[in-house]
Amino acid sequence: MSQSLTRRGLLRSAVATLPLLAAPSLIASRGFAADTWAKKPVTLICHTAPGSAADIYSRELAAALEPVISQTVVVENRTGGNGMVQMAALRGAKADGQTLAINTVSHLSILHTAGKGTFGIEDFDWIARVQTEGFFTVVRADSPFNTLADLVAHAKTAQPLLNIGGQGAPGSAHNIHTNILADAAGFQFNWIPFPGGIEHLTALLGGSLDATSNNPQTIVQFAESGRIRLLGYQGSERLASFPEVATYREQGIDADPAWQQMRGVIAPKGLAPELKEAIASSIRTATETSEPWAKYMTASNLSAGYMGPEEYHAFVLRQSDVTLTWLKRLSLV
Fold it and tell me: Which of 51, 120, 54 lies closest to 87 in space, CA to CA?
């Protein structure tokens, strides 16, 4: 109880002291003034199920963006095909800014695996990177694995293999996270894919999984209620809101902390450069001036990571190379 109260107090304190940054100036070129580019309700397509981390991000972003552009932003969940259903819907939309989609690092994995030959980075316009976050390895509160060392020791000799679940098929961000851990620690596992974060937590609590890969924002309430145990965090340092959870490297496992989740916004290919900049400017204004967004970011243990179109596109190309390296190393391509 005291740990939960302390964590909530920490989050409230962080929100209270979080400065709101100045909004960027308007872009007025060829009629695409920032915040006036949307002429009707905007559709924002999410590739995962309601309740997942990506879905929560989509809805929080939509809520923050609406007052900035003076239009409704409707979130559509187009699940299936590990993101390919969403990408197909986006690619088929008109390049006018009225249809956008969210992306995660899993999109880069899919482009090298199931989506190879069907979709590519250059099939879309990369509008903005918005946030980043790390990964936890999670077990039930009554699990026999009290520490990450317990899980690793058992996994090295387990027959059958441990069932570890997470969002997405092999090659997804969550799957690569667990593969990086397993590769560094020297064990194998059976991956059980789920469409979203809530589903695999439900399966974990129901006893059909031994462990899960989770992002911070989907586990806070489960951790505070004492239903799950966090064994370790893949990051360069501990999260302030979970100071008791050591990083993998602190626990003697040299798992690469650079592998992080990212979330951004993409659009159909072919937007005018001025329109891309205007949409990105609106996103930046929304995420730097919205108090509800600031509370969501703090409460969910997320890090701001804004990049505009040009910088984001260059980052995606670099991250795609890193993703491909890991996919090859883990024999996923």
Answer: 120
**Count of CB atoms situated within 10 Å of the CB of 87:** 25
Answer with the one of 234, 251, 268 that is the final residue of a domain: 251
31 DSSP assignment: T
Q: Are strands 135-140 and 99-104 parallel, antiparallel or unpaired?
A: unpaired
pLDDT in tens, 240-299: 889 999 999 999 999 988 888 899 999 999 999 999 999 999 999 999 999 999 999 988
For residue 73, give the 3-state DSSP assignment: strand
How crowded is the C-beta side of 290, counted as CA atoms within 13 Å?
22
Mean of the per-residue pLDDT values for the chain? 88
> What's the rounded Cα separation, in Å, for the pair 286 and 208?
40
Number of domains, the chain = 2
Does the bond joining 19 to the residue before it have cis omega, within 30 degrees of 0?
no
Strand order across the 211-214 sheet: 190-194, 163-167, 211-214, 135-140, 228-234
Strands (E), 108-227: 124-133, 135-140, 163-167, 190-194, 211-214
Q: Residue 134 has which token pair?
A: 């790390």
What would the two tokens of residue 277 be?
A: 């900049």
In this structure, the answer to whether residues 151 and 229 fall within a common structural domain is: yes
Please state the pTM of the whole predicted model: 0.73
> How far is Cα 280 from Cα 184, in angstroms, rounded to an integer?
38
Pair 75, 168 in one domain: no
Tokens (6 digits) for 265: 């916004």
Q: What is the spatial distance between Cα 316 and Cα 126, in angstroms, rounded to a whole number?
A: 8
pLDDT per position as a tens digit, 11-54: 333 433 333 333 443 333 344 556 789 999 999 999 999 988 89
Domain limits for position 197: 135-251
Mean pLDDT of 142-152: 98
